[in-house]
Here is the input.
Amino acid sequence: MERVFFYFIAVAIIVFAFMAVTNRNMMRSIIYLLFVLIGVSSIYFMIEYNFLGAVQLTVYAGGIIILYINSIMLIEKIGTPMEKVKTVRKVVAGIISVFGLALTLFAIYSYPFQTVKSGNVTTVSQIGQALLGYGNNGYVLPFEVISILLLAAMVGAIMIAKTEKK
Amino acid sequence: MINGVSIYEILTLTSIMFFIGVYGFFTRKNLIAMLVSVELILNSAAVNFVIINKYMFPGKLGGDIFSIFIIAVAAAETALALAIIINLYRLIMSVKTKDLETMKY
Here is the structure.
């Protein structure tokens, strides 16, 4: 049952991802990206990383998609299709992508992954203790670095978007 | 782990997603559409972190936490890039790559 569900999600993710990068209507492309992000979050839920799935849904599907939709509404008229891509460009990009995919899949399938079976579920309190711990399994340094990065990004976005008075 | 699904199948899915993102990055000519492809690439990398953590080192939390960091970095990157694009649109009235020759006006 889980296998069937996983294959359903996988096919949906691939189809919607392809439609997101080929559709000529910008708004539709963003909505297909939303479907891909929801599919990825359902994969997170299936492997029982519930907190990560919730973060994916709120930050990506909730925040980033709305940011995209707002900026598209600011920039261009809705429904104006983008210009067609040249066939040469499509073929070259397709060849590069397929070649890279073949190389990656060859590397993946020739490496023997030693998987471990376990059924333990990661709880939110474990994640919180790891984020603020400084011991053996602590990640407080990257946590602080990411907070500085978010602050810098916020200040930078305000600086860039601010209009100068003349 | 998902019952009956091996690590190879999920890694295949994320690789396909990654290279669809690469294809979009090469073919698109609109800055926002290129950002969509970058989102696909970042998301497939985040899934890879989580899957390898869950299937090979289930007692540890490294992949989980770094996926959260990837999501935070992607959010910051999107906010900054969209601010730059909107500012650019104010200056040259276009978001196509062929119209961009310099970032400093």
Notes: The mean pLDDT of chain B is 87. Chain B touches chain A through 74 residues (CB under 8 Å).
